[in-house]
Design brief:
Blueprint: E1 27-31, E2 37-42, H1 43-52, E3 56-61, E4 68-72, H2 74-91, E5 97-102, H3 108-123, E6 127-133, H4 142-155, E7 160-169, E8 172-179, H5 181-219, H6 224-228
Parallel strand pairs: 1-4, 5-6
Antiparallel strand pairs: 1-2, 3-4, 6-8, 7-8
């Protein structure tokens, strides 16, 4: 039976702002592309002001009273908006929730191993959820699970803040730690440094390739003897 290809997620429709005759209000507050305040103008006068400059009237704040419009080139405006969106997407992080599971009978050595794993997750900017799994009669010893969770929280206190205190969820006792803001900032700076290093390496490789092609091209040309033609025999 052939495998079905999963359909790509539908693209989020692009939010378009109203421009020129699409604007449906009587008066607007107008700002030029240079930041000059033209004040509140009737819509027709605002459109004429934009046309005189060879630009568009763009409704940038439709919910304001009156709505705010900006005079500028619509194509340039959309380019700047997309550029800002891309920059914000780069800055945003995909935070994962990592899970660390233990049992009430887990000894101290194994708890320390689990704590080290949690520290690795937190140092990469991820949340960590701890689960103490109880089975049968072990539910009578919830205090043991609480001590285990607090032990691991203490081991990670320099990297994380307590997001959710130990609490019961069915047969599990859970706790969630969030990486501290300074840890998240270090992760972001590390990613920026890595991206910058990759760009420099690609630029250097491209430069070396161009230089190699140039040297090879210089060597493929005719020699001086070939350019000067046959030489007369010596007398």
């Amino acid at each position: 039976m052939p495998l079905r290809r999963s359909r790509p997620a539908p693209r989020k429709p692009e939010k378009r702002l109203r421009t020129n005759q699409q604007i449906r209000v009587r008066e607007v507050r107008v700002v030029t592309d240079e930041g000059e305040q033209l004040g509140v103008l009737p819509l027709d006068a605002a459109i004429r002001a934009a046309e005189e400059r060879g630009l568009d009237l763009i409704e940038v704040a439709p919910k304001a009273s009156p709505p705010v419009c900006r005079i500028m080139n619509y194509g340039k405006f959309r380019y700047e908006q997309r550029k800002k969106e891309k920059e914000s997407q780069k800055k945003s992080r995909q935070v994962e929730l990592k899970t660390v599971r233990v049992r009430p009978n887990t000894d101290t050595h194994d708890l320390d191993v689990k704590s080290r794993n949690a520290r690795k997750f937190l140092s990469k900017g991820h949340k960590v959820k701890f689960n103490v799994i109880f089975r049968g009669p072990e539910l009578r010893h919830k205090d043991i699970g609480r001590r285990q969770l607090l032990h691991m929280a203490e081991a990670c206190k320099d990297l994380a803040d307590l997001d959710q205190s130990p609490r019961m969820e069915a047969r599990n006792m859970t706790m969630i730690l969030n990486p501290k803001p300074e840890v998240i900032e270090q992760v972001i700076q590390g990613k920026k440094a890595s991206e910058s290093s990759d760009k420099d390496a690609k630029a250097q490789a491209k430069d070396q390739k161009v230089r190699g092609e140039k040297v090879q091209g210089d060597g493929d040309g005719p020699s001086d003897a070939q350019e000067s033609g046959p030489q007369p025999p010596p007398e």
